[in-house]
Model the fold of this input.
Amino acid sequence: MAEAIVTENLNKTYKLGAWDVEVLKNINVSIEKGEFVSIMGPSGSGKSTLLYLMGGLDKPTSGSIKINGKELAVMGDREESKMRRRDIGFVFQFYNLIPNLNVEENICLPVLLDGKKMKDYKSKLDDILEIVGLNERRHHTPRELSGGQQQRVAIARALINEPDIILADEPIGNLDSKTGIEIMQLFQKINRQRGKTIIQVTHSSESAEYGHRIIHVKDGMVN
Done:
């Protein structure tokens, strides 16, 4: 099986005044295409930092990250930005929706930022709305949606460019347990039916069980 993401001897250190704070230490992980992987660890363990490094949202202090075989460090800013828009979909705990845009417009935001026309994505939009179960809410704004529905919009937005990889940071952290189960079942469905590689950071052992395997991070190291 081909590898979606590989990290080699990955380190991340932040400067805090005169102090160097080691957040990640020599992380070596390999995630295959089509895998659903959960990253778990206590608060402050470095798990979200690892996810952001994998998505190119932050840069390592040292070490290597490869996305679909391409080394992040050798990419120029424009190529890396394009990779983030087209090859990776991001889902965050707080949804990050634009309040005055409706569901359709929020989902198509990556398309518009890529300089493409929303009308060319109509059939894909219809398909994705069907997947996330929001057909009847397509003209509603975020304030008219529940938390679970807003997260479904965020997941749909992550899918619109047909990325190979979806990175999710505490995707059910703001949701009640019943809605959280529904969202995890949706991720599982997308992984199985669409073959998307999904990597989620979670505190919840129940959520982690929806994936194929768990990567445990503690004190900045993979255990």
In short: The first helix runs from residue 47 to 54. The domain at 36-45+77-222 is CATH 3.40.50.300 (Rossmann fold). The chain has a mean pLDDT of 92. The beta strands are 3-16, 19-32, 36-40, 62-67, 70-71, 88-91, 165-169, 197-202, 213-218, 221-222.
